[in-house]
User: What shape does this take?
Amino acid sequence: MTAIDLLLLFAGGVLAGMINVLAGGAGFMTFPLLIATGLTEMQANAANFVALIPANIVGTAVYRKELSEVRQNLVLRLVLAAVGGTLGSLLFVWLGAESFRVAIPWLLLFATISFATGPLIKTWLERQKGFDVHRWLWLSLCLEFLVYLYGGYFGLGMGIILLAIYSIFSHMTIHHAQALRNATIALMTMIGIAIFAAKGIVPWLPSLVMMAGAIVGGYGMAQIARRMPQGLVRGAILCWSIMLTLYAFWRYH
Assistant: This one.
């Protein structure tokens, strides 16, 4: 791997850290970049876990006040993230990434539509007699567990799917949802890294170079995003989600 490759990986990490703190889905940019430097697809997926975790850790730290305000069911969600992430990462080691490629664009399309229409869906549901988001917590948690399972396996775009679920099944603000998303994904990703490292599929040099860039980008964007109006953050996430979905259909179909 040349010095130019490492420089590109660092620059890609900076941008990825910014994107992941704001919306998630940066793996769609870093995954092909890692492959372009000569890694296999399994190595690139493992490298993504290592490289992008700082954005979620930094996001969790910056949003710690918001996280404390949604601490109800936080422990349960962390347990679901740990169990789902563990199972997903083990499946990835056993099965490889090929089996999820066809599903990725459709998962992202579902996530984008759900995120865009989430507030409208929730408003409509709340007008229906007897609807209470708290009564549907079980469904939200089941869906979240499936996302963590997918995330441990091949989690491109999982953050956007989580935000869509939160927007429908909770009264959280976008900033509270960001705090919860960052915390659960950070835990799930750390478990995945441990499993991939134990199996010897983590390419450490490119992973750590990109991680350094992600730390810089993630910290800067977290400070900015936390102060942005909710509508602006939602709009930025939606635009990014649409671009990711279009790219995924082009890349994987």
DSSP finds twelve helices and no strands in the chain. The two ends are 30 Å apart (CA to CA). The longest helix spans residues 103-127.
